[in-house]
Amino acid sequence: MSPAAFDTPAEAERSFENLRTAAPELVARITHVRDGIGWIWVVPGARGLPEIRSSRPYERYATCQNAFRRFVVLLGKLADPIEDPAQLSSGSRRLRPTDAR
What domain of life (predicted)? Predict the structure, then answer.
């Protein structure tokens, strides 16, 4: 989940491409959520602002840590650009304008 808001879908896709490229070097900060119970992972970006973060809190620290590891693995699997939309898995989809938040 991106804490940043994008003006266009192209900006959101460009940001995602940058994440895919940087997947092997991504490092997350795992922190306790302010409101409620749980842990989230956050990848700091430029000027210390969050680049991306988990979409939900996790009950256990270790579960949150494993969720980040799975996220990095999935980004790594997407390291090569997909030219043919038919190659996308059934759960995947292209960004819609409302997704670029």
Answer: Bacteria
Instruction: Provide the 8-state DSSP code for 58.
Output: B
Strands 50-53 vs 29-32: parallel, antiparallel or unpaired: unpaired
Burial 27-37 (b: 16+ CB within 10 A, else e): ebebeeeeeee
Average pLDDT over residues 60-68: 94
The whole-model pTM stands at 0.68
**Domain positions in the chain:** 9-79
Q: Minimal CA–CA distance to 52: which of 82, 74, 77, 81?
A: 74
Name the residue among 18, 17, 44 with its Cα closest to residue 30: 44
pLDDT digits (tens, 9 = 90+) for 25-49: 888 999 998 887 899 999 887 777 7
What is the C-alpha end-to-end distance of the chain, expressed in Å?
A: 9
